[in-house]
Amino acid sequence: MQLDLTEADLAFRRSAREWLAANTPGEPAPHDGIAAREFALDWLRRRHAAGWAGIGWPEAYGGRELPPERLVIWYEEYARARAPSLLDPTFVSLNHAGPTLIACGTPEQKAFHLPRILSGAVLWCQGFSEPESGSDLASLRTSAAVDGDELVINGQKIWSSYADIAEYQELLVRSEPGSQRHRGLSWVICDMRSPGITVRPIRNMAGETHFAEVFYDNVRVPLSNVVGALHDGWNVAMTTLGFERKTAAMGLQLALSVKIEELIALARPRPGSALAERLGDLRAQAAGLRALTWRTQFRAPATAFDGSLVRLVFAELSQQIHRAAMDILGPDMLAHGPWSHAYLEAYSETIAGGTAEIQRNIIGERILGLPRGGAR
Ligand SMILES: Cc1cc2nc3c(=O)[nH]c(=O)nc-3n(C[C@H](O)[C@H](O)[C@H](O)COP(=O)(O)OP(=O)(O)OC[C@H]3O[C@@H](n4cnc5c(N)ncnc54)[C@H](O)[C@@H]3O)c2cc1C
Known about the structure:
The protein contains eleven helices and eight strands. By secondary structure, the protein is of the alpha+beta class. The chain folds into three domains: 7-118, Butyryl-Coa Dehydrogenase, subunit A, domain 1 (Orthogonal Bundle), CATH 1.10.540.10; 124-233, Butyryl-CoA Dehydrogenase, subunit A, domain 2 (Beta Barrel); 249-367, Butyryl-CoA Dehydrogenase, subunit A, domain 3 (Up-down Bundle), CATH 1.20.140. The two termini are 31 Å apart. Flavin-adenine dinucleotide (FAD) is lined by residues 125-129, 134-135, 159-161, 211, 348, 351-352, 354-355, 357-358, 361, 373-375. Flavin-adenine dinucleotide (FAD) binds next to strand 1, strand 3 and helix 11.
């Protein structure tokens, strides 16, 4: 593991900083609908044109194949520049659909989809959760019957972020009739424009509709859209969740260090006061999260479960910082739009991508070796 940044790393940091200073959009990003789609894709296209999209992806698919330390530097500079939140409509495409295709896709799937994702031509969403299968993902029931060289899909997904504005979905279905739990599932690329798909947006407590229910009524998907082997979707889904928990939120984790400094500047606590102590504690926790993020990226050999640790620390710290902001700013929070929006959104951070309880189960069972429970 490399601890010191080289001259080349520092030059990379300078070029990232300069590009972000000159190109970061000044206007706030819309949170849902077509406006959110256009803003996010436009920002991605600008990064792509300048060589700042998918910098860790293989060169063959338009990336720069940069090592983890460069990714961390990029995300630190991204946060420092107060660039648009990375939790935008491109999040699934760039951070887990794309990486899953790189890891498990066929050459044809990679050649078709990866350049489109990176260049901002299309959006992806995720269709894993169902009304009765969230934490216990292996109980999912949406079926996919093999019919010639197609799958015929019937069922329902829920909480699918940006499903209303995405072209493709990473869809987990039960393809082997009568199969139980983790067996008999398939991970398929579903074209959201297929006949038989109905998307119903759900409004959250921030007043936005950035996730949706999706219904499938005899939706036909070619078998060539199965990623990994037919009926082996659980392994592919675990690859996706590994990316979702370990690398996808790296930029969000590093951004918390910037957030806490912003809050300290707004609160201007008196030295020695209880408020200074509370904010100092949060600043120390953000520094700890930054260290944990670096460690997670460089730990060799990486364990598939490290992501749960860093994801849990991030989600709980983010909620603490936003709660402190609410306590400190009170009604004035409304005058600080991004803070009040982020406060409401932070509630979902201990649910999305696996709840805090599930991450604790994984840490207990897979890292600490405690007796196994039931869910994913
Ligand atoms: C903002 C947001 C975006 C999302 N985006 C997507 C998306 O794009 N695609 C997608 O597929 N899903 C998405 N989800 C869904 C998310 O993955 C699920 O909400 C999550 O996995 C929890 O499932 P559930 O909501 O069904 O809750 P449940 O599984 O019903 O859990 C209810 C409660 O019981 C607890 N619990 C359940 N099982 C256990 C256990 N074994 N041990 C201890 N406690 C347990 C949970 O922690 C929780 O508190 C999103 C969720 C949110 C909030």
